[in-house]
Amino acid sequence: MNVAIIGHGPSMLLEKRGNFIDSFDFVVRQKKRGLELMQEHPLFFGAKTNAVSGSVGQYRAINHPNSERWVFIDSRYENTDVSNLTGAWVDKNLCNEWNQKFRDKRTNYSRPDERIVSSKSSDSFGHRHLSSGFHTILYACKLLGPQNITLFGFDSLQKGEFTWSLTRGKNWNQYPDHRWDIEFLMVEEVKEHFGINMEFK
């Protein structure tokens, strides 16, 4: 099975790859914003949607017709009762395991720019959890067991540093909270752990 996961990096608007994306066996989109971008720019984002992922806070917003709903647990929702999230696939153990791996790798660092740290960021380390995109990769690996995963628009993860996102826009000054440098290093760990091929487009 060949899986496409659609991100929100600005590279998504550089080339009309909608038909190519729709040719994959299984297409996963992220958050309500991922569904909006698909509707706004179908030539770039395609239309096929087999699953939509998001955090507990996105549970209702990621309900899409004939698509699976994947809900991940991050540090904001660690103590949330997820038993009422009907119609969604939730793997709390998977999320906790990999978020702990992430936290174990974090070290303090100086931000390379003057961006404001969001009030939602727990400390100078950034968020205490992996990004939505990384959670989505983990879910795809565990649920689908694919041979190949292709990541579209995962600009920050691919570079290991912040690139502005279509979710927030160019002028958002409280981003990034995520440690893209750490997530970049963890990509190889995921590939080895699940025995998959992964490439950025």
Q: Could you list some keywords that capture this structure?
A:
201 residues, alpha/beta, sialyltransferase cstii, chain A, 7-stranded parallel sheet, 7 helices, 33% helix, globular
Task: Please explain how this structure is put together.
The protein has helices at 18-22, 31-40, 42-45, 92-105, 132-144, 155-159, 180-194, and strands at 2-6, 26-30, 51-55, 68-72, 89-90, 148-152, 197-200. The two termini are 17 Å apart. The protein has a single domain, classed as sialyltransferase cstii, chain A, CATH 3.90.1480. With 201 residues, the protein is α/β, with parallel strands linked by helices. Mean pLDDT is 88; it is low at 118-123. The chain is built from seven helices and seven strands. It is globular, with a radius of gyration of 16 Å.
